[in-house]
Structure formats: C-alpha cells, structure tokens
Amino acid sequence: MDFLWKPIVFTAAALGVLLLSLFTIRSHKKKDRKYHPVAGTKLNQILNFNRLHHFMTELTAKHKTYRLLAPFRSEIYTAEPANVEYILKTNFENYGKGWYNYNILRGLLGDGIFTVDGDKWRQQRKISSYEFSTRMLRDFSSMVFLKNATKLANIVSEAAKSNQIMDIQDLFMKSTLDSIFKVAFGVELDSMLGSNEEGTSFSNAFDNASAMTLWRYVDIFWQIKKFLNIGSEAALKKNVKVVNDFVYKLIHSKIEQMDRLQDNSSVKKEDILSRFLEVGGTDPTYLRDIILNFIIAGKDTTAAALSWFIYMLCKNPGIQDKVAQEIKEALKVKEVKRIEEYSAHVNEEALEKLQYLHAAITETLRLYPSVPVDAKICLSDDTLPDGFSVRKGDMVAYQPYAMGRMKFLWGDDAEEFKPERWLNEDGMFQQESPFKFTAFQAGPRICLGKEFAYRQMKIFSAVLLGCFVFELGDSNKTVNYRTMINLHIDGGLHVRASYRDQR
C-alpha cells in the first residue's frame, strides 16, 4: 500500500490527475449546461487523504454541493437533503453502484448486495428483507448479542480490577465479529478470547482485504498491479484467498449438516446461512457473496459506532452518568453483584424504555457516522433538484460526516454533542428525515439492518454502562479517525474502566 506514496510515482500520478482534470474542465465548458462549482481536483483529496472528512466538511461549509474533477468525469458531493432524496429515492434507478464501484469491490464482496444493481440486487434485497423481518432472527440475534456483551463485560471487569488501560475499539471489533459470525453462519468464532486460530486468521485477512480494497479508490494503478500480481494487489489476492478458504469450508460444512437434518423439521434454522440455503439454493459462490456482505455490514459499522459512542461519553461524563441512570432504572437493578445476573435483566421490554440511550447513540452517529461518504454513479445525464446538471458516468456522493456538522441543517450547535435534540417534550425519541440524517441511507437501499444494529448497540451499552464508568486513558491525546470505508478510530480507543457501584 506504500506504493502510492513513493515520490516519483506519486508525482507522476498527481500530474496525470491534474492534466486530465484540466481536460475535464475544458470539456465541461463546451456544454451549454450549468454545473456545480468546482472545489478542487482528485489531487486535493489525495493530498488531504489522512484528514479527508475534515477537508470535505470544509468544502461543504462553502458549497452545499460541489465538484471535484477527476480523470474522465466529475465527482459531485452533496449535503443538500433535496438532492439526497432525489438520488436515493425519487430517481433511484438512475443512481447505482455502476461498473466503477462493482469493479473495485467485487474482488472481496463478489456479487453481494453492496456491489450490484438491477435484478441481482432486487433478488437479494427481497430475500434479505424477509429474513430481517422475522421474529426468529430478532430473538436469535438478541440472544447472541447479549451473550457476547456479557463476555466482553467480563474482559472489561478484569481490566478494571487491575486498573489496566484497554483498547475498547479492538474489543468491540472482535465482539461484533463474533456476533455477526454466529448470526450469519451459526458458528462460534470466539475472536475475543482467540481460541479459534482459523477464525483469528480469517478476521485478520478480512480486515486487511477491506483496507486494501479501499486503496483501489485512490490508487490509479491498481488494475495494472492486479494484472502483474504485485504490491497491494498481490497482498489483496492473498488475503481474499484466506477469507474464501475459511468461508467455503463453513458453507460446505453447513450444507452437509442441513442434508443430515433435512428430515427433521423440528430443528430450528436460526442463522442466516441456513435460512438462505432453504430458499436460495446451494451455490457456494452465491452464498459466500451474500454472507460476506452481511459480515462487512454488521461488523465494522457497529463496532465503530460503539467506539465513537464510548469516546463521546468519556468527553461528556455528565451524559454518561445520565445514560447509566436510565439503564439502571429500566433494568430495575440497584447494584451489580455478578455480570451474568445483571445481564439477565436486559430484555426487549427494558430496551424499549431506553429512549435517552437511543438518542445518545443516534447523536453519535450524526457526528461520527460509520459510513462517512456514500457514492453512486449517474447512469444517464440528469439535473438535480438544485438546478445543476450531472453527466452520465459522474460519481455522485452524499456525505453523512459533513452533513452532521452543517449549521444550515442542525443549527448553530451542530458540532455539539446533544442527545436532547432527538427527544420530544415527553422525553421520547423522535426521528429526523433520513435524507437529513443519512447514517443508514434512505429510499429503496435503506439499511436493512438498521434496527438490528440499534438493538446490538443498545444491548452492549446496557451491559457495559450499567456496570462500568469509562474514561480516556490519556485525556491529552488527540483522537481522530482513520480514513477507511468505515470510520474507525485511528490507533484504537484506549480507555480505563472502573466499577460504577464502587465510585
């Protein structure tokens, strides 16, 4: 991945981007159409890569919608809700993943729901929508989340006893991977305790492959490197093989298990793979693509959101106490003696009462959305609601990270962490337009796992915050994101926990 930053290669690439961008400017002037203001070129993104979302927020504060010029096309970035609604709903059919995104993502995600358009997307969406709406999956996933939240709380408890600083983001990444793996495959990965060596290898390879896939968006030479099997593309190929070997082994094992149990109708088929085997056939590649897309959706996004949530609570201890008090009252627990006994009080009825917790998690997602930018490809020439034109082949992206910081959307206190903005006069959570609060997309592609994710985050929060007080390991250390597809905290989030009842 360092290939991009070698001085000679970087300079050549930058000059190439700049020259091609200038050509794009000239070609746009030939058209008698009105285009969004130019805020820079692809080169500016590369130069600001480590602070990319800060850079794009600064541009958004100047222009609600703007263009960055890139080879052969414009990249259009918008924070205007009317434009977002048009892209994601009103003219949905004209804004898809397109060949550009598919070509980049298919190495890891294949023909999964996050890479395809048209009939392939519709078929997977229909089946997935049904599965996510079943009570069986809700109950099974809740049981899995609670089990892993309890396991995580015991790890935190050991660190609290010795006053040890821990990387809570790393623990969230492992626990959410364990959860989604159990829900997706019905398999105990146990990456939290590291007892499954194959699972640990898969986890590391999956993370590496995800990061290398992102580099394809900035590495203009990736297809050459893939053809030659060198550099980051050789490493990506190696990591994807580890991922595939592990997943195909699980799929074949599950198919054999299902064949043995096919005459036993009383056996519950709770995990997603078993459910898809019942309705979608047994093509291993098809199943691999579906399941890996679920994993990337359910692992990093939830873990990143929980990490930023703990960070915001550490920065706002008064809000942390208020969340914890609501949890204690909803669970009707005055004192935590054993974590397992305490966790047993976390149920659907208690979770429904956690309105302030729900608001605090949502406020975190407003400021630190798990997917900070989401891009589509314009499939035919079009005009957005703001009156500006978009050309066929242009990339059009809405910006959850930048939108969460815009005063024209959220008021003068847009950059403040205020869960109360999500509560009505009765203290009940109230939704905002999904075209203003875009953390879960909107329209036909709205996140199927939205409620699934909230339930997982609330279960983990209820267990951890009811038992522990969290504070930053080093309050003077700057916490920032790592520029990836998902908004990870760079270098992890190092915190210290203490028992809440012993403060």
UniProtKB/TrEMBL annotation:
Bilayer-spanning residue ranges: 6-25
Source organism: Tripterygium wilfordii
Family: Belongs to the cytochrome P450 family.
Domain of life of the organism encoding this protein: Eukaryota
Entry cofactors: heme
Protein name: Cytochrome P450 704A227
One GO MF term: monooxygenase activity
Residue numbers binding heme: C447
Keywords: Heme, Iron, Membrane, Metal-binding, Monooxygenase, Oxidoreductase, Transmembrane, Transmembrane helix
Mitochondrion listed as a keyword: no
